Amino acid sequence: MLCKIDHCSILIFCDIIFPYYLRRENQLKKLKESTVWIIIWILIYLAGFFTNIYDAFSNHGIHIINGQYYRFFTGLLLHTGLIHILGNILGIYFTGKFLDHQISQWKLLLITVFSATSANAIFSVIAPNSISGGGSPVVFSLIGLICVSQLLCKDAPRFHFRTQYGEWIVGYTILSNISPLLGNFSILIIHLLPFLIAFLLGFIGIKCKLLKFR
Predict the structure, then answer these.
(1) Share of the chain above pLDDT 70, in %
(2) CATH number (domain holding residue 200)
């Protein structure tokens, strides 16, 4: 079944947001980790207007996944609406603005993919009949790296709350986790898992001198 096409949303992405991020990177080799995620999210979101991509790629609980374990990753690429994707774009943009220049982009991409995918896999066991999708685990894995770098790396740039990136990251963290106040703790769990996994990976990487924040 095809999704109803929202022409306004398509115009916003095609004419404003997508070209903006492409213009920020003059060469493919200079693409930042956060920009890679944003471009993929936008392309997948646009594809969702023409096909029921959510059913095909959303993360499923372990009881209903039927061996389609690729969903642990592909669920990170989906969003349920314009506000959902814009919120995560802003979240990853400002976390990336602080973190992207401090660490190798390949290492950053590997850590976020592993942390967020692992979080989806664990969540599928915790909520075995669930169907979910969203890029927020990627953002919270970056927040986990920010926290561990601040605790362990004296040479890492200091995180300042009274900055544009600081206010946006804190605001994103708070607003994306207000659902427990309404009795929905699943969102808090899927945000906490990638945060903890990335924090642990960062801790091990720093202690073993595999990660350097500069």
Answers:
(1) 84
(2) 1.20.1540.10
